[in-house]
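Figure 3 (text version): structure tokens given as input.
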């Protein structure tokens, strides 16, 4: 999970592309979404994340669609 999230944290500001397998990203997001210590339930309150690269979805509410790594950057970082 750290490689997925922090890999993006490092790559994006440098203008580089960091690719993680979509299924790994989806599994990480599913874990973070339910982890109260990491603030997932609070951060996802009222939002439904739809991952266009895996077909998976989490939460209820207004939809935020995109590849898993984009959704991480937009909502959970």
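Below: residues designed for each position.
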């Amino acid at each position: 999970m750290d490689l997925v999230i922090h890999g993006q944290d490092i790559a994006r500001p440098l203008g580089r592309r960091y690719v993680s397998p979509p299924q790994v990203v989806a599994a990480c997001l599913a874990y973070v979404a339910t982890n109260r210590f990491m603030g997932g339930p609070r951060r996802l309150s009222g939002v439904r994340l739809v991952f266009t690269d895996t077909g998976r979805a989490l939460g209820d509410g207004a939809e935020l669609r995109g590849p898993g790594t984009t959704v991480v950057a937009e909502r959970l970082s």
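The chain has one domain: 2-76.
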